[in-house]
Amino acid sequence: MLLLEVISGERLAKPERGKMRVHKISNVNKALDFIASKGVKLVSIGAEEIVDGNVKMTLGMIWTIILRFAIQDISVEETSAKEGLLLWCQRKTAPYKNVNIQNFHISWKDGLGFCALIHRHRPELIDYGKLRKDDPLTNLNTAFDVAEKYLDIPKMLDAEDIVGTARPDEKAIMTYVSSFYHAFSGAQKAETAANRICKVLAVNQENEQLMEDYEKLASDLLEWIRRTIPWLENRAPENTMQAMQQKLEDFRDYRRLHKPPKVQEKCQLEINFNTLQTKLRLSNRPAFMPSEGKMVSDINNAWGGLEQAEKGYEEWLLNEIRRLERLDHLAEKFRQKASIHESWTDGKEAMLQQKDYETATLSEIKALLKKHEAFESDLAAHQDRVEQIAAIAQELNELDYYDSPSVNARCQKICDQWDNLGALTQKRREALERTEKLLETIDQLYLEYAKRAAPFNNWMEGAMEDLQDTFIVHTIEEIQGLTTAHEQFKATLPDADKERQAILGIHNEVSKIVQTYHVNMAGTNPYTTITPLEINGKWEHVRQLVPRRDQALMEEHARQQQNERLRKQFGAQANVIGPWIQTKMEEIGRISIEMHGTLEDQLNHLRQYEKSIVNYKPKIDQLEGDHQLIQEALIFDNKHTNYTMEHIRVGWEQLLTTIARTINEVENQILTRDAKGISQEQMNEFRASFNHFDRDHSGTLGPEEFKACLISLGYDIGNDAQGEAEFARIMSIVDPNRLGVVTFQAFIDFMSRETADTDTADQVMASFKILAGDKNYITVDELRRELPPDQAEYCIARMAPYTGRDAVPGALDYMSFSTALYGESDL
C-alpha cells in the first residue's frame, strides 16, 4: 500500500495493524481494489498468492503497478505508453550519430543512450565527447552515477548484468528510462513556459517596431507632401517656350521619378497599418492609434490635396504652353516668311543694276528680256508675302510679344527694300528693249553660218574618228571591205573642200558688217562655238590621216593572208584526226560487245589495238603545235573545219580511257572466271545474253532489261510480291549505288556468285558456333585460342558485345559480325 501511495501520489484506505494472515490478506485486497479502481485488470492475481510469497505473482503485480502509474501516463503524439516513451527517447537522442534507439533491450547495452539522454537535458553533467562505444561498462556506470547523484534517480540496474546479458530485461530498462522521462518532464515544462513568454515578447516587440515604422513613414510622407504642394501651386509665368517646357519636363520628372516611390510608400504605409492592426487583433492586443494628424485618413486627405494641386499645376502648365506656342508659332511664321522673302530678294538689286546687256548677243538679249518678264511676274507674286509679313508683325505687336522691337525693325527693312526693287525693275526693262533692236540685224548672218558649219564640223570629226579607229578583222574578206570603203571616202574630199570655203566666206561678211556699223560685239556667234580656225585645223588633220590609213590597211591585209594559211593547215589535219578518233571509238564499242574467242585472245587483241592507237600520238602532237601558232596569231574561228583542238583533246582522252576500260573489263572477267570456276562456255553465254538485251549498245542494262536477261538464263523471278522483293534484293547487289543501270562486270559478278560454291553468312555463323561450344556467344579467350593472333584480334575489335539473356561478362556477338562480313548488316 505504501508503494502505491508513493508511486500514484494518492492516499489509500488505512491498513489494518494486525500481523495475522487474515490482516495481511485484507491489506493486500485493499491494494488490489485500488489498482482495479484505476482501470487496471488483474488476471489470476489473488491476495492469498501474494501473502504466501508467490514470487511470480508478486513481480507481475509490481510490474503492473509500475506500468500503470510510472509509464502509462507517458503519451507522445497520441501513441501508447511504451511507444510514446520509445518515440521520446528517439527524438531526444536523434542528434547523436552513434546512438540508435529502436527498442528497450539491446539498444541500451553500450550505455550511450542513457548518457545521451542526460547530455541532451543537462550537458554540463557529462562530457559526451570522451565516451567510447567500445567501453559500455564505463558508459553505463557514468550514466547511473550521474542520474543518482544529480537527478535523484536511484540505481535500478546493474551495468555488468546489462553488458553480460545477450538481451537485457525490457521491463527493467523501460522502468529505468521512464524515470528519466519524469525527471526531465519538469524541465521541459519550464522550457515550454519560457518559449511561450519569448514568443509573446517577440510579438510585442515586432508590433512596437511596426508602430515606430508607421510613425516614421507617415511623418516622412506628410513632410514630403508639405514641401511639394507649394511648388505645385507656383504660377509664375515664363516668357519663352523653352523655359515653360523645362517646367513641364520638371513636372514629368516629378511624375516619373519622385512621385512613384511616394505612391509606393503610401501603399506600404496602409499595408503596414492594416497588418499591424491584424496582428494586434490576433494577439488580443488593443488596436493601434497613431499620433495626432498621422492617421491613414489624415494621410489620404493630405495626398488628396497634393493630387488636387498637381492637377491644377498640370492644367496651368498646358494652358501656358498653348499660349506661348501660339506666340512662338506667329513669331516663327514671321521669321520663316521674312527669311524666304529675304532669301528671294538677296542679290536682286545687284542683278537689276547689271549692265550685262551691253556685251550680250541678240539671243542673250532676248533671253534677258524673257528672264526679266519672268522676274516681273515673280515680283508681283511676292506682293502677297510682303503684305502677310506686315500683318503678322502687326498681330505680334497687339499680343505684346516680348521681341516686338526686332520684329518691327525687320518688317520696315523689308518694306523699304520692296519699293526700291520696283523702281529698278522698270529701268532695266527700258534698257533691254533698246539693245535688242541693234543686234537683230547681225543675228541672221550668225544663224546661217552656224547651220552650215555644224554639219561640216561633224563630218570632219566623223572622218577623223574613222581614219584613226583601230580595226579588228578576222578574215581577208573583212579587210578587203575596209579598203573599198576607204577608197570611196577619198573620192568625196574635193566637194568637202568647196563647202569649207563657202562657210569661211559667211564669217568674213559678218566681220565687215561689225566694222562698218561699229557694233559692240563682246561675244562670239551665239548659235555655234565652231570658229574658222577650228575648221581649217580639222581639215588639215583629215588630209594628214588619209595616207596613214592607207598604210595600216595594207599591213593588215598581209597579216590576214598569213592567218588564212594557218587556218587551212590546221583544218586539213583536224579533218583527218577527228573522224579517225570517232571511227576508233566505234570500233572499240563493237569489240567490247562482239568479242569472240577466249578472254585471253580478246585481251591480246585489245592490247594490240591499244598499241596502234598510242602510235598515232605524234599526229596529235603536230596538231597541238599548229594550234599553238593559231592561238599566238589570235585566230578565234576557222571555217575550214568543224573540229576545235578542245574537241580533238577530249576525243583522244576518251579514246585512251575507253580502250583502257575495255581491257580492264576483260581482265576482271578473267579474274572472275578463274576465281569462281566459270567455264569459257558460261562466259560466252553470259556475254551473249547481256548483249542481246543491251539493245542500245550502251554497255549497260536497265532494270527491266536485266530482269528479262535473268529469266532468259533460267532464273525464276515471279510477277507476284515475292518475286518483286527478290528482284529488288538482286538489284541492291548489282546496283548498290542505285544508278538504275547494271554493268556487264556487275552482271558477271552476280552470275558467278549464283553459279559458284561460295561461303555464306550462315556457314560462317555455324563455324563460330562450333568454336564457341554451341553457345550463342563467344568469348575473347575462345577466339584467341582457336584463331591465329591477327585474325583473333580483328574479330575482337569488331564484334559487338552480346546482349542476350544468357550473356556473361565479356561475351561477344558473333552472329551480327558474320552477317556484317557479307554486307547484310553494318560492321
UniProtKB/TrEMBL annotation:
Record Gene3D superfamilies: 1.20.58.60, Calponin-like domain, EF-hand
PANTHER family linked: SPECTRIN/FILAMIN RELATED CYTOSKELETAL PROTEIN
GO molecular function: actin binding; calcium ion binding
Entry protein name: Actinin alpha 1
Protein origin, superkingdom: Eukaryota
Record keywords, A-Z: Actin-binding, Calcium, Coiled coil, Cytoplasm, Metal-binding, Repeat
Any one GO CC term of the record: cytoplasm
Subcellular location: Cytoplasm
Keyword Calcium: yes
Ranges of residues in domain EF-hand: 681-716, 722-757
Family, as annotated: Belongs to the alpha-actinin family.
Ranges in coiled-coil conformation: 200-227, 365-399
Domain Calponin-homology (CH): start-end pairs: 1-70, 79-185
